[in-house]
Write a structure and sequence with these properties.
This protein has 159 residues and is of the alpha+beta class. The chain is built from seven helices and three strands. The protein has two domains: 75 residues, Translation Initiation Factor IF3 (2-Layer Sandwich); 61 residues, DNA polymerase, domain 1 (Orthogonal Bundle), CATH 1.10.150.20. Helix content is 45%, strand content 20%. The relative contact order is 0.13.
């Protein structure tokens, strides 16, 4: 999910029209999964622009070379048009609050669901939590919860 969130962040924060995923060897499946999860679950307007496959020749420690498969997946999306608000200020595109929760390191979809059960439905809700109380409810360390809250506060301030 970290790679999926990185792709989503790249598209939304920079208002770019394309993101390229590069992988080789066993990591190719991770790149394909990240592209497909992004396209099918989170950003249905993202398309596969192109896929390039190849082979790299790597030197082995014991001498000689070996071939390793490579793949480049170019994801494309039309840039988001930013509209002017009432005062003429720009309105930044944002990911929905539920998706932002899982952008915090250590919070996956299952943990986000557990947070929602305890009334934490957004990054802002998490930023306003008491670390000790939330750690007791989730039965995890207060140190970990404090890290999430710190990151949520940073994200909330960047809105």
């Amino acid at each position: 999910m970290s790679y999926v969130m990185a792709v989503i962040t790249s598209f939304t924060r920079s208002n770019t029209g394309e993101v390229t995923l590069k992988a080789r060897g066993r990591a190719i499946t991770t790149a394909v999964d990240a592209a497909e999860i992004t396209r099918h679950r989170f950003m249905k307007d993202v398309n596969i622009g192109s896929i390039k496959i190849g082979t790299e020749e790597l030197q082995q420690e014991e001498g000689g070379t070996r071939n390793v498969s490579t793949m480049e997946i170019r994801l494309t999306r039309a840039p988001v048009e930013r509209e002017a608000g009432r005062g003429g200020e720009k309105i930044e595109p944002t990911i929905s609050e539920s998706k932002k929760l899982i952008s915090i390191e250590g919070i996956g979809s299952k943990r986000a669901e557990k947070l929602k059960v305890h009334g934490v439905n957004s990054v802002q809700d998490l930023a306003n939590c008491d670390p000790k109380g939330l750690s007791e409810k989730l039965e995890i360390s207060e140190k970990r919860v404090s890290k999430w809250i710190d990151e949520a506060e940073k994200l909330s301030n960047n809105k």
